[in-house]
Amino acid sequence: MYIRKTQIQKKKSGGHYYTYRIVESQRIGKKVTQHTLLNLGAEFSFSEEQWPILIKRIQEILHGQKSLSQIYCEIETWACNYAARIIAKQ
Question: What is the pLDDT of residues 13-43, one digit of tens each?
Fold first, then answer.
């Protein structure tokens, strides 16, 4: 599981913007496919240095594990929110 930054082209103005997605890789036979679990939108505000911490915590929540490390309160709040949205979507 990881966060992907995707560039989107604006049709009318010709510019572009970025959206962020939580993506999971799956191996099916000899092929590896990526599946979008959750679209985080263009307003995603975490720095790239915090992405691995956030993803690790989301995975822990999805697997029912408690965090062994101290996590910033903001990351914990968003990780719980994103995990709940992933569970609701499934």
Answer: 778 899 999 999 999 899 999 999 999 988 8
34 vs 12, which has greater pLDDT? 34
CA distance 29 to 38: 24
Q: What's the structural domain count of the chain?
A: 1
CA distance 80 to 14: 36
Please state the pTM of the whole predicted model: 0.81
| Sheet with 31-41: strands ordered across | 2-9, 16-28, 31-41
Closest CA to 78 of 29, 23, 40: 40
Owning domain of residue 8:
2-89
